[in-house]
Amino acid sequence: MAFYLDFENKIKNIQEEIELAEIRKDDHAKAIFEKELDKVVEQTYSNLSAYQQLQLARHQDRPYAIDYVKLIMHDYHEIHGERTFRDDPAIVCYMGYIDEQKCVVIGEQKGRGTKNKLKRNFGMPHPEGYRKALRAVKLAEKFNLPVLMLIDTPGAYPGLGAEERGQSEAIARNLYELSDLGTTTISVVIGEGGSGGALAIGVADRLAMMRYSVFSVISPEGCAAILWNDPTKVETATKALKITAEDLKELDLIDDIIDEPLIGAHRDKNRAADAIKNYFLREVSALEKLSIDERLAKRYARLESIGRFQEDSKA
Questions:
Q1: CA 151 – CA 243 distance, rounded (Å)
Q2: Domain containing residue 36
Q3: pLDDT tens readout for residues 67-82
């Protein structure tokens, strides 16, 4: 059964009426409710708060990286391990085709259901996960294949073992290597982009976000705990952090917003997947018209432009 958030209750009620009309084979009533549903969807999703968008980014039915791989790729094969410690299931890597474009896709995978959540460590990679991602992009560079990176993590795993094996070094190494990679790279935040765990596969020629995804230096819960020691301040923290796609586009921290279905990727996974696929193919086509030197120069200029400050004239 579909899971509805609190602010989606009106949509849930109308959807139930549509289902009842279908059972009764009452086409007239169904048409009326469908028209009403379109109106309520427009009203609801056109005025979402930052906290409501955060809830959508974390929605339990939202497509994860493997869902998108299955929807947009064909003839794909998974790349396992990083040849020094183990295979980290929190990051998945595939080589295959998107339409006729041979490519490598890397994604952070949260897992669905208790067993899979534990297997994927709730989408929080260990350092070997980032090293696996680096191995995959280096393989793509060797064969001049474009790379699509799908970001969806609460953050890098902060456990003792991860720190002992060099979590910060693994993230920093990825930032360094991805900034100078010789092949075309596209990163898309598909759900939750948390801190360095997201940045480790977020340095690219193009960085985009799905309409209802979020990208932040810390979770709103962590921010509320540090600043106010008050869990009820989560909504305030979410708004203050400026973590929505619209916020980051306005601050020039991302390049594009991918227009997922208005009602959310979890309600129309095929259209959401098509939006990612079309964006990837379009941007790869545009970027590959540039020479490697031109592409690297643009990537470096983009990275250097991040960050703003304003001097106080009264100081």
A1: 14
A2: 6-47
A3: 999 999 999 999 999 9
